[in-house]
Design brief:
This protein has 274 residues and is an alpha/beta fold. It has twelve helices and nine strands.
Length: 274
């Protein structure tokens, strides 16, 4: 139901966030099923390296990584920090986390199998830094989750969300090729205003990830995880293949395929605790 607002101060940004998410019917993902191939697209664009460098923890600091996935952020952070606690709701992701940590001789960590919305100061204690890397985009009870995060953090909070240009190819495919409405995730502006309503005034930065994603083949582009193939019919997947054949441009030197509109775009929202 649309809100009738006469004063901008009356805007309920959490309600707008929730309505936007509920309209996005394909927002849920089976992360246990996604675990085997998780992280491949990020390795193409260097997201993890950029974020770890930006956080740059000190050797005496403890970190809580909410929605830690396979440890691509947690493990590099653990090499710099005193201790890292990773929380994720997908058991398969945490198994990959353990394998990654063992392979890189990282022992100063622990993992917890739990939904990040259930993590509070009472059940996990305080940590110097709280990181929610690309893990809040789907959260319905966003204000309470942010409140929990702020209470847990002693020093800093770092959150990343989808940027405005993250889905340009997907929008084109759905709207102009399939003739379907493309429902986006709520943008970082919603989260910013929710935080302001909570009395938190965060910093907002765009993470400069760099070059467009590259693929060895159209098949690799299709299987990249960004197209949610489980929501497409066989005919639509054929159209997707035709679309990618048309828009992906081969690099004459490397043979890799790319498109300038297929570029990772992430916004970093962070604040220092008072």
């Amino acid at each position: 139901m649309k809100q009738c607002i006469s004063d901008a101060e009356e805007l309920d940004w959490e309600s707008f966030w929730q309505e936007k998410l509920k309209a996005k019917g394909d927002r849920q993902k089976d992360w246990n099923k996604a675990a085997p191939n998780f992280g491949k697209s990020a390795r193409r664009d260097g997201y993890h390296t950029h974020l770890v460098e930006r956080i740059n923890p000190q050797a005496d600091e403890t970190i809580l990584d909410l929605g830690c996935g396979d440890g691509n952020i947690s493990v590099p952070l653990a090499k710099r920090a005193k201790f890292v606690t990773g929380v994720d709701s997908a058991e398969k992701m945490l198994e990959k986390f353990d394998m990654k940590a063992q392979k890189e001789n990282v022992a100063n960590y622990k993992t917890i199998l739990e939904d990040l919305t259930r993590v509070t100061k009472d059940n996990i204690g305080n940590h110097d830094i709280v990181v929610a890397s690309r893990s809040l985009n789907n959260v319905i009870p966003i204000k309470q989750t942010l409140k929990n995060i702020d209470e847990i953090a002693n020093k800093y909070v770092y959150i990343t969300l989808f940027g405005p240009n993250n889905w340009r190819m997907e929008k084109e495919f759905y709207q102009y090729i399939l003739g379907k409405e493309y429902n986006e995730f709520p943008s970082h502006r919603y989260l910013f205003n929710i935080l302001v309503d909570m009395g938190i005034y965060p910093n907002v930065e765009n993470l400069d990830i760099g070059r467009p994603r590259e693929y060895s083949s159209v098949d690799e582009a299709i299987e990249s995880g960004k197209w949610r193939l489980d929501t497409l019919g066989d005919d639509e997947i054929l159209k997707l293949r035709e679309y990618l054949n048309d828009v992906l441009i081969p690099n004459p030197e490397t043979g890799k395929l790319s498109n300038p509109n297929d570029r990772a775009d992430w916004v970093l929202i962070w604040w220092k605790k008072q």
